[in-house]
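Write out the 3D structure for:
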Amino acid sequence: FFLFKLGEPPRLGKWLPALAWGISGGAAILALDWLFSWLSTLAGLKVGLNPDFIPRARNEWIGWAITLPFVAVGEELFFRGLLPALYRAVNAPAGVSLVLACALFGLIHFGEGLAAPFIAALLALVFFFLKNKSGGLLAPIIAHLLVDAAGLILTAHGK
């Protein structure tokens, strides 16, 4: 499901391109995020994670370190794996399924601030791109994990 089609044995050769796409995609997203944050600061807008999400104590950081991989895997399996398959099953046009999946991904991030749903919907497009370029879900999972972890760490340190 992540790297190979059902009924096919996994091939180790597919790990390296997926890893490369995931890391480069995550790095590109973080660079764009930094640019967006910088421009938002210049414009006087406050963006970033809800302060309630930021860990403060050591055990909260441990909890996030355990939780983040499950979030990245779960959201990618659902939004880039299951939802597109369901849309295809009901013969929805590809563009409609892409827009719906991105919009739903944005909506689940509504509690993170007013800009979060729009940013998350744009990130969903990047995650779909990574899935298509790499041929599986490993690349968007890696990128998603990098973006979430970096966002949490940078927000906690006031960056």
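The radius of gyration is 16 Å.
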